[in-house]
Amino acid sequence: MPLLILSLLALQSVSAASPAQPTAEIAAAIRDEQDIDQIRAAIVSGRLDEAAALIGIFDAAHPGSQPASLVLAKGELALEEGSAAKADELTRAVPASGPARCSVERIRALAMAERGQTDAAIDSLAGVTEHCTADWRIWRALGTLLAQKGQMDASRFAFTQAMQGSPSPALIRNDQARALIRAGDIDAAAQVLRVADGTPAPDRETIRLQDFLAGMRGLEPARAAADSDEMWAQRLVDAAQGARRADHPSLAQALMSEALLVSPRYDPRLLAEAQIP
Question: Which end of the chain is more exposed for a tag (fewer CB within 10 A), N or C?
Answer without folding.
Answer: N
